[in-house]
Write a structure and sequence with these properties.
single chain, alpha/beta, ten-stranded mixed β-sheet, 10 helices, 19 strands, globular
């Protein structure tokens, strides 16, 4: 660390944390969240679910293995900002193509290092997520707080990160055709389907139920994504129309959307779940999985009763809902990320469960 500190973050409660800037030098207001993952900063930086969020990494060292061309979760990262304790600008990795700082600069993402990330994480844990401003260290606190007060957080994140027109991912000798509704989908989800012999047609978030039916899917996938699930009205409406007609599988935001479409409710958590170390119990098998998570909202447990859904998974840390299903409609979803890379591999069976549902639906249709 050379020279005087030149950047800082200012929270809504007036707390200031000075440090050194890296990446882009722009000022930005975001929602401040923390992530407990020890590795995977490239996947976090490029995960569309972090749109408009500034992520505090609780593991201290970031940047040490650089950024590789093959590991992005989206082609254009939309992370709000990155806060780290120690930043390494000289990565050691034969696959590295750029430094973390170069990628942040390229996509206009501000970063700061040298701050007390432990204190910030405790603040988020105790007081909840809040708005934060990253700015030049010379900005008076009064100005920073005024900017925070006047800035309203947007609610159009899904529209901004979804694809604008359909695109296709093909594999040799496909077994099934999956239509994936892109609410901010991670690319490893597409890779996971292709690895299991599925052709994937990715469609924008506001694609109508009728347009999806014209694609003749064997199953419908609802992706992860940023923001409040209640804002994803077109997707909720499409699920209401299509449920029971095709097998459906939802992850993260897609899980919340399925809950809303069936009449359940969602709530914002105090500080959410972000990291690769959450134990989740599958109530259908009794098995406990270590999962990777990234979400601010959760399905309200009491609201599931009477909707036709059943709770299939629970978080063993706080008993939040981690999975729901409607066996009659061949619909199921999970709050966590079975495709997470790098991350726990305990949950890959969920993709196979979806393939089984598509196989069963095709057999039933032939009969």
């Amino acid at each position: 660390m050379a020279g005087e500190m030149n950047r800082k973050i200012v929270l809504e409660d007036g707390a200031e944390y000075p440090g050194w800037g890296f990446g882009a030098t722009c000022d930005r207001v975001c929602e401040l969240v923390f992530n407990t993952s020890m590795v995977g900063y490239q996947e976090i930086v490029s995960d569309p679910s972090y749109t408009d969020q500034m992520v505090v990494m609780t593991y201290p060292l970031m940047g040490n293995y650089g950024m590789t061309d093959e590991d992005y979760e989206t082609r254009i990262p939309t992370l709000g900002g990155l806060v780290v304790r120690d930043y390494c600008d000289t990565p050691s990795n034969f696959r590295s193509a750029k430094t973390l700082g170069e990628v942040l600069e390229e996509y206009q993402i501000p970063g700061i290092y040298g701050v007390d990330t432990r204190a910030i994480a405790r603040s988020i844990r105790d007081l909840g997520t809040r708005k934060v401003l990253i700015c030049d260290i010379s900005m008076p606190k009064k100005w920073a707080l005024d900017i925070l007060r006047r800035t309203e957080m947007p609610r159009d994140q899904v529209a901004r990160v979804s694809c604008q027109k359909p695109w296709y991912a093909r594999t040799a000798n496909p077994k099934y055709h999956v239509v994936a509704v892109d609410c901010g989908m991670k690319l490893n989800i597409v890779r996971s389907f292709k690895a299991r012999g599925c052709n994937v047609t990715v469609v924008p978030w506001n694609t109508s139920a009728q347009a999806i039916e014209r694609l003749h899917p064997d199953g419908i996938f609802l992706s992860n994504g940023p923001g409040d699930p209640e804002d994803a009205v077109p997707v909720i409406q499409a699920v209401r129309t299509l449920r029971g007609k095709y097998p459906m599988f939802g992850i993260c935001l897609g899980h919340q959307i399925i809950g809303l479409a069936y009449g359940a409710k969602t709530q914002k958590l105090k500080f959410g779940h972000r990291g690769g170390n959450h134990p989740v119990k599958d109530l259908t098998t009794g098995r406990v999985e270590i999962t990777s998570q990234n979400h601010s909202y959760a399905v309200v447990p009491d609201s599931v009763e009477g909707t036709g859904l059943e709770i299939t998974h629970i978080n063993l840390l706080d008993n939040t809902v981690e999975g729901i299903a409607c066996p009659r409609d061949r619909v199921f979803s999970v709050q966590y990320h079975p495709e997470s890379a790098p991350g726990p591999q305990d949950s890959g069976y969920l993709f196979d469960r979806f393939l089984d549902a598509m196989k069963e639906a095709k057999s039933h249709a032939k009969a």
